[in-house]
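hey
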């Protein structure tokens, strides 16, 4: 799958679950530093059961697990989501 396909899918999930652009930009900043930090942050948010983040965070976690060794790809996907959810 391409960055665009995965990004569009995540953007649809973000829109339907009410995940805002502030949250996606925060996740993008964490992805640019470390995917491990991003993954830990997402798992923490899921454990807190914050309304509106669960569905998007679950989907993003699956992408991270699938592309764990490709940080630029994950970062580009999140950039795409940020651009389409603004």
């Amino acid at each position: 799958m391409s960055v665009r396909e995965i990004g569009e899918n995540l953007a649809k999930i973000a829109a339907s679950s009410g995940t805002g652009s502030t949250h996606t930009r925060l996740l993008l900043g964490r992805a640019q530093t470390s995917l491990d930090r991003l993954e830990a942050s997402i798992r923490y948010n899921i454990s807190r059961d914050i309304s509106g983040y669960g569905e998007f965070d679950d989907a993003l976690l699956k992408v991270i697990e699938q592309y764990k060794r490709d940080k630029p790809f994950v970062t580009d996907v999140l950039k795409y989501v940020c651009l389409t959810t603004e």
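The mean pLDDT is 88. Residues 35 and 68 are 7 Å apart (CA to CA).
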